[in-house]
Structure prediction request, 356 residues.
Amino acid sequence: MANNTVLVPWQTLKQFTKDLFLQVGLSPEDAEIEADVLLWANRRGVDSHGVRMVPLYMQSVREGYFNVDARPETVHETPAVLVIDGDHGFGPPLTARSMERVMEKARQVGFAWAFLRNITHQGAIGYYALMAAKQDMAGLAWVCGRPNMTPYGARVRAVHNSPIAIAVPGKKHPPIILDMATSVAAYGKLRVAMDKGESVPATWAVDEAGKPTTDPHQAVVLQPFGGYKGSGLAYMFESLSSLVVGVPMLIPYLVDDAKKPSPGTQNGVLAAIDIGAIADIERYKKDVDRLAGAITQLPQADGIDEIFVPGEPEDKVRQVRERDGVPLPGPVVQSLQEVAADLGVPLPAVMAGSAG
Prediction:
């Protein structure tokens, strides 16, 4: 494969990833969730949010931005609402447990929310929305961080490309899941292009001068999708998360340099809707299947071979990767080799000596 890419069986890669997190001090339960979230992304082809994040996480631990010994605290609770301070702990364990609590509340009152503050990178946000869909609920999740995207009409970073995910259950069809950023592409996709030695579309990002660039090494600020629509959504997500929990992510960078949150800090929102509390759940799931089937059978536009509903392209990739393995470019393998050597964790045989 190109660029010294190696195929690693996903179960092997997951166990190796878990071992790394165990060695850095996470509990077995937290390390399992961390590894599961990262490999969920890799298996679905979302490599920007897969194991290539591990070295960055380890660096954040060394620099004190990720708290291995975090003690999350519920600071406010009602029958339908949670507000949780994450104490800058690892994002996936806290977020997964928070979604479990949100679903418990939704079973009681029909609809519930969790507002998370002072958390760290949560991985692919769709993982948590899907948790609800697997329980016959609708799931919703979004994230806000420090500025990395231009608002429409500007040429400097001022908003975050807040990812959002929505998932609903089907009957025979796998859950329908929309998982997207408010930028044209997530920043992790620029890093993937760097790993592969590839250029990127000029619509993805701008350089330091605010000019569109196809060189991922020069791309420093993301561009919103749909112009004012993407940046408008990002603005409102910040307003409905960070401002609500009292940890603004954008204001300190724009008007008050003295109170910036520590690097790696994020805020997020989770929600679950118990569809069975509103409608007949079996009828609903059948209708989800019917809608998906009708959309995918529409006449195709010129140049289009197949029509998908949200989540289907990733499901197809997952089937292939669970069979053949997860492709890791040489630079990713090398960075994981370095982390493993630093922590004294044995490498999977297929990764030993494979880098570029």
In short: The chain has a mean pLDDT of 94. DSSP finds twelve helices and eleven strands in the chain. The first strand starts at residue 6 and ends at 8. Residues 91-109 form the longest helix (19 residues).
